[in-house]
């Protein structure tokens, strides 16, 4: 038996736009039913299955909760995985990445909290725009290449957002 689709696990239809509150609520319900503690008196096999189910559920939740991971998962459901030769065919984005990295380094060097907050707002806005663009094209086979390019951009901005959060934590200390 293959693993069920992440969306089916949470009673969601495969789509980029999902209700994150509903996802979280359903996750909490399901986690209680497969929590290994509930199987403390069960056989070793049942305990192992409970652990596997809990791990699978957690992986599905983490994937669907994250826009870039959800986007990548949707494309994988639709066919092949993303080719790895990432941004080379996207020189405009490559340049934007370098500029954003430099700006973040400058903010780090100057320990500019207001600048970091403004950078974070711009980043969130750029992520929203990418989400909207991906939502509009992911399910259209003719726009597959565009969807793949957008996922790579989403992954980069997500990684950058994590770095911004880490920088904020360091500057707050």
UniProtKB/TrEMBL annotation:
Q: Which UniProt keywords apply?
A: Chaperone
Domain J: residue ranges:
5-77
Coiled-coil segments, which residues? none
NCBIfam families from the UniProt entry: hscB, PRK00294.1
Q: How does it assemble?
A: Interacts with HscA and stimulates its ATPase activity.
- Its job: Co-chaperone involved in the maturation of iron-sulfur cluster-containing proteins. Seems to help targeting proteins to be folded toward HscA.
The protein, known as = Co-chaperone protein HscB homolog
Q: Which organism is it from?
A: Pseudomonas schmalbachii
This protein's gene is called hscB
């Amino acid at each position: 038996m293959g693993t069920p689709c992440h969306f089916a696990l949470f009673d969601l239809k495969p789509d980029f736009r999902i209700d994150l509150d509903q996802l979280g609520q359903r996750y909490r319900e399901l986690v209680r039913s497969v929590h290994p503690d509930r199987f403390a008196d069960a056989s070793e096999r049942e305990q192992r299955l409970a652990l596997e189910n809990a791990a699978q559920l957690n992986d599905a939740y983490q994937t669907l909760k994250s826009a870039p991971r959800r986007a990548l998962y949707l494309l994988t459901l639709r066919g092949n995985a993303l080719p790895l030769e990432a941004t080379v065919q996207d020189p405009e984005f490559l340049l934007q990445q370098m500029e954003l990295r430099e700006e973040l380094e400058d903010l780090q060097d100057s320990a500019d909290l207001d600048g970091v907050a403004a950078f974070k707002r711009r980043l969130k806005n750029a992520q929203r725009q990418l989400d909207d663009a991906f939502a509009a094209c992911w399910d259209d086979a003719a726009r597959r290449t565009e969807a793949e390019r957008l996922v790579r951009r989403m992954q980069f901005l997500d990684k950058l957002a994590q770095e911004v959060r880490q920088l904020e934590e360091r500057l707050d200390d």
